[in-house]
Amino acid sequence: MTVIIKTHDQIEKMRIAGRLAADVLEMIGEHVKIGVTTEELNTICHDYIVNVQKAIPAPLNYHGFPKSICTSVNHVICHGIPTEKKTLKKGDIINVDITVIKDGFHGDTSKMFIMDKASPAAERICRVSHECLLRGIELVKPGARLGDIGAVIQQHAEAQHFSVVREYCGHGIGEGFHEEPQVLHYGKTGTGHILQEGMIFTIEPMINAGKRHTKLLPDGWTVHTKDRKNSAQWEHTILVTKDGYEVLTKRSDETF
Ligand code: MF3
Ligand code: CO
Ligand code: CO
After folding, report:
1. 3-state SS, residue 22
2. Which of 137, 133, 150, 131 minimizes the C-alpha distance to 188?
3. Residue 130 CB less than 6 A away from ligand 1
């Protein structure tokens, strides 16, 4: 396994890419409302990334993915394809996942949006999956191990009687969209790759309200829960610093 340790110059470029990805999520917030289609969200993000940020939407044509962002509603876990057929309804929860390429480097981040009249259960899975991400991030520092992060996420999710998706995980990121190592959202403390200053990777736990099992739709991308219960996910791109972490995709409402 080859984990790339980023140089100072590469880290500077990752800071810029990360900030741009975060800016897209901030920009799109006011548009994620009942009545909008996921196709419209895709178009707004695509145009902003290309025309305002002068950046590239990484998902577009990535291994054949047909759109510029991922939009995953309710029981869709990840990689939902924006479409004019999917209109947001009252009570829906949606993950919007943004990856931009700027000056050759990737920034990758996602968050949940909750529509009006969502059930307490829907709000709870959004809150707990966010807590899982934050608990994982807080452990990031040189000498910590990837298994520590997976374990704290799994423990928090399962203590709430939720389950952790196994088939998809976080990843190293840089000039590549998905680099080594794989960042599992379950595991055992004290195991796995040892974190080093200059590593950059995502943490992006997918937490299911019911069982952990997944199903891939015939479109080859859309992943949903087998039991059709809700799933929620949040993602940040994280740099391992000398004594901790820096969240490269931090939004202005966040205080890391
Ligand atoms: N952004 C996703 C991730 O967090 C990957 C999406 S790949 C795509 O890793 F092709 F579906 F866009
Ligand atoms: Co990612
Ligand atoms: Co992502």
Report:
1. helix
2. 150
3. no
247-250 own/partner pairs: CB under 8 Å, 24+ apart: 247/18, 247/137, 248/14, 248/15, 248/17, 248/18, 248/19, 248/107, 248/200, 249/18, 249/19, 249/21, 249/22, 249/107, 249/108, 249/109, 250/18, 250/22
DSSP 106-140: EEEEEEEEE-TT--HHHHHHHHHHHHHHHHHHHT-
Instruction: Take residue 33 and report the two structure tokens written for it.
Output: 């409302």
Nearest C-alpha neighbor of 132 from the set 113, 150, 114: 150
* % pLDDT > 90, the chain: 100
- Its pTM stands at 0.98
pLDDT digit string, tens, across residues 106-161: 999 999 999 999 999 999 999 999 999 999 999 999 999 999 999 999 999 999 99
CATH no., domain 8-247: 3.90.230.10
Dig out the tokens for 220 from the structure. Answer: 């080859």
108 lines ligand 1 (CB under 6 A): yes
What are 64's two structure tokens?
């054949």
Q: Which two tokens stand for residue 133?
A: 């991400």
Residues 154 and 188: their CA atoms lie apart, in Å, by: 9
Distance 211 CA to ligand 3 centre (A): 22
| Structure-token pair, residue 194 | 């040892």
